[in-house]
Design a protein that fits this description.
Layout (H helix, E strand, L loop, with lengths): L7 E6 L2 E6 L2 E2 L13 H12 L11 H13 L3 H13 L11 H22 L16 H12 L3 H14 L2 H8 L5 H8 L1 H10 L3 H24 L2
Length: 231
């Protein structure tokens, strides 16, 4: 759509924050007020709107998209979203290891195992590791503790966590970003460990590399959103 406003700015709205487009409060695609928990997030979304050219490109506004998703789609079904996030813990990427070659096995151990150790120390949640393709059952107690950690987050942070677990294939990596244990780039490298190993051996085509870069940018943007969404 064509740009229909001149100025976008963030303002306080009671105890929350919103964005004005030429003085008019911004709403979500479903028509709900865009009320945000932090000024930092409101300013980031206002900057996305201000940076638009003659045509407004929604795909170039990841913060706005995530905020609208949180309000329109996460808030009305919180329990289901929490279930979907925690489900990644039951089949977490970091729990499924290669049997060979030895250098890939070692790389997975060096990069993934410290994050599982951190998860156990931080949440008292121990996830079992396997080297076969058959799903390994995780204990109800560990998954319950992870559920409690996820459920403690607000709806905007949950929208970010939902996006991160989907992009990373890992609740462990998503929580590690949330808690500041690793940054977005480290999480990207961890989730792409097997793919990177294959690229180093066999190379990659242009399309595959473009997909990896798109994933890297998505993870980085979502990590920024989560950091700014938490009160």
């Amino acid at each position: 759509m064509r740009r229909f406003y001149q100025q976008a700015r963030a303002i306080a709205a009671g105890t929350e924050f919103t964005i004005l487009l030429d003085g008019k409060p911004l709403r979500t695609p479903a028509g709900a007020p865009l009320l945000l928990p932090t000024l930092a997030l409101a300013e980031a979304i206002a900057a996305e709107w201000q940076a638009q050219g003659e045509q407004v490109q929604p795909r170039s506004m990841p913060m706005m998209q995530l905020a609208a998703t949180a309000i329109d789609r996460v808030r009305p079904r919180l329990a289901q979203v929490i279930d979907e996030i925690v489900a990644y813990g039951a089949t977490d990427l970091l729990c499924y290891r290669a049997e060979r070659p030895p250098d890939l096995v070692q790389r997975q151990e060096e990069i993934w195992q410290p994050l599982l150790d951190w998860l156990r120390q931080r949440y008292d949640a121990h996830l079992q590791v396997t080297r076969c393709v058959v799903a390994v059952p995780q204990s109800d107690s560990s998954l319950g503790r992870l559920r409690a950690a996820v459920a403690a987050e607000g709806d905007l942070a949950l929208a970010g966590l939902h996006a991160l677990t989907g992009s990373l294939g890992s609740l462990v990596l998503a929580l590690a970003i949330l808690e500041g244990r690793i940054d977005a780039e480290a999480a990207f490298q961890a989730c792409q460990l097997d793919e990177t190993f294959q690229i180093e051996r066999w190379g990659a085509d242009t399309e595959a590399m473009a997909a990896r870069e798109s994933l890297r940018q998505d993870i980085a943007a979502t990590a920024r959103f989560v950091a700014m969404a938490r009160v």
